[in-house]
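User: Second chain of the day. Same drill as before.
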Amino acid sequence: MHTHMLNFRNNRPLQLMSAWLVIFWIWMAIEPKYRHDWMLENMLVIIYAIILVLTYPRFKFSNRSYFMFTIFMTLHLIGAHYTYAETPLGYWLQDWFGWQRNHFDRIVHFLFGLLIAYPIWELATRAAHIKASWSYFTVTLLILAMGSVFEIIEMWAALIVSPELGDAYLGTQGDIWDAQQDMFLATVGGAIAMVVTAIIRPAKVS
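Assistant: Same format as last time:
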């Protein structure tokens, strides 16, 4: 039986990934750099987690997709703990490569497209039944749209919930083109993921 058809109680890899995220979330919840920023960063995490749990009986992603979710969420929880602009890993990379800023947020936006495109492709081909000839292009556009919507949500969350944490939450680091570059990198990551998917696992023609 395919892993995406297994119930949660019989899917050991998914159980381990879920346990890891719960444990890591608790760890990252201990003394975050800015508590209010941590709470803002976790609002969408909680919403997405609830959606995945509630829809699981009707649609199960493959374990490959859940693994990609797990990697991305792990990186996001690290960013939420330290804030994306002040993540130690980003500072280490900044020193190593001689960058002018902490690029952890850029890396995570790129990985959003790279890691989340495949799960979206599964949803598009298995649930929405999008034709193979359109699936890869459609998913790439969806990643661009999701990145754009996320930037808008970030803006309003910062303005409405906690304006004084705007820069820490948005992680712009003084870059006026931060949002556009984040969306661009997410789209590039999604496009790469779809090219790889088209090569190694082409969708069935509807």
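Helices lie at 12-28, 35-55, 63-82, 88-97, 104-127, 132-160, 166-170, 178-200.

User: Great, on to the next one.
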